[in-house]
Automatic annotation (TrEMBL):
Residues 20-205 form the Metallo-beta-lactamase domain. PANTHER family: PERSULFIDE DIOXYGENASE ETHE1 (PTHR43084), PERSULFIDE DIOXYGENASE ETHE1, MITOCHONDRIAL (PTHR43084:SF1). It comes from Herbaspirillum lusitanum. This is MBL fold metallo-hydrolase. InterPro entries: Metallo-B-lactamas, Mito_Persulfide_Diox, POD-like_MBL-fold, RibonucZ/Hydroxyglut_hydro.
Length: 288
C-alpha cells in the first residue's frame, strides 16, 4: 500500500501587514514550497528590507530544504512579494494563477505599464496538479477578491486559501478591487467549503478582534458553523448585500499603489534608472 506523505507547515507572521507566509515540506533535506512571502516595505521612505524574508531563508537552511516553488495566492495589495529575492537566494519557481493576465491588463492600464506574464515562471490553470517534493498539490481557482486568486490544496487535506476567507470571527476578503466580485467570491467560498469538514484551512491574514490572539488556521467545519459572513445559513444574496455595503466603507490598503505595481510583475522592483535609483509610479486621482 502506498503511504500518503504528511506535510509539515511552518507559518510566519508579518505584524506590519498582518500577513502569513508559509513553508510547506515533508521532511528535513527534502523539497519545500514557500507561500506568499513578504518583502518589508516602508512607504514613508520607499525603503525595502529583507528581515521577514530572511526568517524564511533561515528556516529553510536550518532544515536543509530545497526551495522548489514560490507560490503566490494572488497579486497582493497589502504587501510586496519577496519572491524574486528568495528565488535569487534559494532558487525555485515563482507561480500564480493564470488569470493574473487579467489583473496585469487592468493594472497595466492604471499604471501605464506593460507587465508581462513571463515575469512569473509558471502560471497555474484551474485545478492543475503539481508536486512539492513527494506531496501532491493542486492549484484551485478561487476568484472574487481578484480574478486570479488561487488556493493551494495539499494532499487533499490542507488548503492555503489566500484572500477568500479569514478566521470565522473576521469573515471574508473584500471584493471591490478592479475585477473583484462578491457573487464570484461567494461561489469560490462555497466550492472550498464543499471539501471534507476536517480540511485544514491556512489563512493569508488575520485581523483578530481585541482579546483574541493571532491565528493562522481553521477548518471547513468551523467556517461552515461560525464564519460571520459565510456560515451555512447565509444566502448568496445576503452575502453580496453585506459585502457590497462593507466594501463601500473600506479605504484602499496603505501599500496598494506601490505593492500592486511590483506584484503584477512577480514582485520585481522597478528597473534602476540611469542614476542607479529605482522609482515607483503613483497614479493620481484614480477612479475605477
Ligand atoms: Fe489580497
Amino acid at each position: 500500500m502506498q503511504q500518503t506523505p504528511v506535510a509539515c507547515v511552518q507559518h510566519f507572521f508579518d505584524a506590519n501587514t498582518s500577513t502569513f507566509s508559509y513553508v510547506v515540506y515533508v521532511e528535513d533535506g527534502g523539497e519545500c514550497a514557500i507561500i506568499d512571502p513578504v518583502l518589508d516595505y516602508d512607504a514613508a521612505s520607499a525603503r525595502t528590507s529583507t528581515a521577514s524574508a530572511d526568517k524564511l531563508i533561515d528556516f529553510i537552511e536550518a532544515h536543509g530544504l530545497k526551495l522548489q516553488w514560490l507560490l503566490e495566492t494572488h497579486a497582493h495589495a497589502d504587501h510586496v512579494s519577496a519572491a524574486p529575492y528568495l528565488k535569487q537566494k534559494l532558487g525555485g519557481k515563482i507561480a500564480i494563477g493564470e488569470r493574473i493576465r487579467e489583473v496585469q491588463k487592468v493594472f497595466g492600464g492604471i499604471y501605464n505599464m506593460r507587465p508581462e506574464a513571463e515575469a512569473f515562471d509558471h502560471l497555474f490553470s484551474a485545478g492543475e496538479l503539481f508536486n512539492i517534493g513527494t506531496l501532491r498539490a493542486q492549484a484551485l481557482h478561487v476568484p472574487g477578491h481578484t480574478p486570479a486568486d488561487a488556493a493551494y490544496l495539499i494532499e487533499g487535506s490542507m488548503a492555503f486559501v489566500g484572500d477568500t476567507m479569514f478566521m470565522p470571527d473576521v469573515g471574508t476578503a473584500r471584493c471591490d478591487f478592479p475585477g473583484g466580485s462578491a457573487a464570484t467570491l461567494y461561489a469560490s467560498i462555497r466550492h472550498l467549503l464543499a471539501m471534507p469538514p476536517a480540511t485544514a484551512l491556512f489563512l493569508c491574514h488575520d485581523y483578530p478582534p481585541t482579546g483574541r490572539e493571532v491565528m493562522h488556521t481553521t477548518t471547513v467545519a468551523e467556517q461552515r458553523a461560525h464564519n460571520i459572513h459565510v456560515k451555512d445559513e447565509i444566502t448568496e444574496a445576503e452575502f453580496i448585500a453585506m459585502r457590497t455595503r462593507r466594501d463601500a466603507t473600506l479605504k484602499l490598503p496603505t501599500l496598494m499603489l506601490p505593492a500592486i505595481q511590483m506584484n503584477i510583475q512577480a514582485g520585481q522592483l522597478p528597473a534602476e534608472e540611469s542614476n542607479g535609483t529605482r522609482y515607483l509610479k503613483l497614479p493620481m486621482n484614480l477612479s475605477w
